[in-house]
Structure to design on (421 residues):
């Protein structure tokens, strides 16, 4: 399939750098302001220590989603994990791997009360029995039931119009539509807010939360010792390992919907994002923008997951020495990142960064892989030719939005002191 190039106004690598440096700074500002808004929204729902912000709004490049469309609604997803319990190192005997499904586990009920601690707010009866399910004569903690109970804890209604009011103030919106949890499809959706701004633009904010149980130990020992490695520094590896990871109620393809959990390394990914150098952060922003502009097409009901470009970036950071980031210009680095993605697409396998036995492309349609490879073969040669021509319009909108939010946030925080959700 022939690839139509964007009529981009970006004429040099330096101009590409200048544009994205400004956009990246605005991205950081908007995400910081949105994080403050979520704190205001959630303070009556969840103890502050129990809610972790994860995903692009803390890792950077959240606004890259806007490159998917020139005229459609701008949107930001705020992903959070509601940590409802923990399993210490001494309790890891209850964690059972699912055969032939790396990254997926079950929680056995062997002395479960001594092995797992659940937040009181999540328990309906103060007992663990409501969460038990049996499979193959073994009792397990039901991931499905945990998800249902956590969803009730995070349940939002806006009958009194309070959310609508503070959102209108925060964004200077002329019209606000709030869609609560019970009307949204999906395992982690919590709240969706659609805005019509006074500028005439549309803006969507979705706040998603998935319940999670903390593992106070590190299950991916091969990653801990993997060599050679240029990144991250050994001290960061040690910190990540000491922090452990989480499990979330997610079923493997064709798996047991009642009892399966998936390992989540969102906390580790956040730490890794914080430890990218400025060149790595900027090149990831550009590569992700191009990914959204040209590689998020829908084929046979599926799209390449954004987790694919994040995973590729982590592999490139690990495999490339400092000289790679110091000696090449931004466009060459972005081209190398996209070429790495092409290599994985050609192989039909993109190994998970922490558990390489997991293939992130496993469920992707063959036609989607083929179309993506064809697009990448040209894009990687000269990435700046494929920057959308509306990048300046995105920057202008983002700047205006951040200014409105900064003005509105003080009023929102003031209102929150007097009104409960």
């Amino acid at each position: 399939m022939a690839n139509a190039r964007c009529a981009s106004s970006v004429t040099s690598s330096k101009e590409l750098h200048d544009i994205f440096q400004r956009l990246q700074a605005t991205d950081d500002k908007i995400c910081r302001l949105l994080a403050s808004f979520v704190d205001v929204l959630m303070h009556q729902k969840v103890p502050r220590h129990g809610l972790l912000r994860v995903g692009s709004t803390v890792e950077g490049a959240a606004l890259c989603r806007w490159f998917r469309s020139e005229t459609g609604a701008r949107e930001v997803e705020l992903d959070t994990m509601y940590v409802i319990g923990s399993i210490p190192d001494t309790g890891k005997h209850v964690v059972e791997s699912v055969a032939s499904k790396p990254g997926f586990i079950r929680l056995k009920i062997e002395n479960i009360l001594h092995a797992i601690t659940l937040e009181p707010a999540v328990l309906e009866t103060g007992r663990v029995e409501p969460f038990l399910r049996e499979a193959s004569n073994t009792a397990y903690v039901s991931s499905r039931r945990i998800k249902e109970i956590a969803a009730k804890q995070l349940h939002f209604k806006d009958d009194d119009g309070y959310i609508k009011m503070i959102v209108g103030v925060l964004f200077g919106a002329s019209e606000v539509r709030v869609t609560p949890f019970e009307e949204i499809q999906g395992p982690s959706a919590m709240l969706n807010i659609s805005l019509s701004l006074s500028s005439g633009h549309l803006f969507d904010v979705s706040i998603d939360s998935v319940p999670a149980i903390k593992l106070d130990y590190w299950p991916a020992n091969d990653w801990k010792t993997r060599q050679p490695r240029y990144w991250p520094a050994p001290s960061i590896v040690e910190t990540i390992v000491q922090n452990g990871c989480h499990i979330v109620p997610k079923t493997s393809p064709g798996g047991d919907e009642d009892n399966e959990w998936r390992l989540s390394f969102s906390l580790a990914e956040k730490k890794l994002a914080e430890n990218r150098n400025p060149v790595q952060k900027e090149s990831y922003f550009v590569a992700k923008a191009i990914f959204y502009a040209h590689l998020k097409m829908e084929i046979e009901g599926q799209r390449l997951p954004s987790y694919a470009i994040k995973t590729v970036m982590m592999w490139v950071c690990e495999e490339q020495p400092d000289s790679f980031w110091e000696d090449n210009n931004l466009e060459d680095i972005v081209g190398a990142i996209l070429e790495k993605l092409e290599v994985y697409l050609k192989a039909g396998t993109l190994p998970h960064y922490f558990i390489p036995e997991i293939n992130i492309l496993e469920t992707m349609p063959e036609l989607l892989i083929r179309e993506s490879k064809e697009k990448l073969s040209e894009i990687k040669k000269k990435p700046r030719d494929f920057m959308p021509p509306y990048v300046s319009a995105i920057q202008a909108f983002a700047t205006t939005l951040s200014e409105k939010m900064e003005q509105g946030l003080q009023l929102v925080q003031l209102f929150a002191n007097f009104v409960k959700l």
Summary: The CA atoms of residues 152 and 264 lie 22 Å apart. The chain is about 40% helix and 20% strand. The longest strand covers residues 74-87.
